[in-house]
Design a protein that fits this description.
single chain, mainly beta, seven-stranded mixed beta sheet, four-stranded antiparallel beta sheet
Length: about 120
């Protein structure tokens, strides 16, 4: 099972970006997915979470600007819509999923999986 994150880039302050994270492989259940970010020289921090039931939570620093959502058509895909971006949002963004998958020998395995990071740079 892999998580593929995409959508990062360079944007001016006040602009928007949408990040995507898709889980591939023999996923059985995707319980929740989180977006984290790691600004330069700082620790990784939780940005947003969405559960299988659609419950969302956000860091105070992004409330009202960022929206996490699940794709109703593409299974196991989550988005992070980022509006009103500020230079302090500059970071490498990572998705993380709590899921179960079918192993090659057909066992159900529970695992927390990280995607590769995607760089978001907001210029002032």
């Amino acid at each position: 099972v892999q998580l593929q994150a995409s959508g990062g880039g360079l944007v001016q302050a006040g602009g928007s970006l949408r990040l995507s994270c898709a889980a591939s492989g023999r996923v059985v259940v995707l319980y929740s997915m989180d977006w984290y970010r790691q600004p330069p020289g700082k620790e990784r921090e939780l940005v947003a979470t969405i559960t299988s039931s659609g419950t969302t939570n956000y860091a105070d620093s992004v409330k009202g600007r960022f929206t996490i959502s699940r794709d109703n058509n593409a299974k196991h895909t989550v988005y992070l819509q980022m509006n009103s971006l500020m230079p302090e949002d500059t970071a490498v963004y990572y998705c993380n999923a709590d899921l179960t998958y079918m192993s090659p020998d057909d066992n159900i395995v529970a695992q927390r999986v990280w995607g590769q990071g995607t760089q978001v740079t907001v210029s002032s």
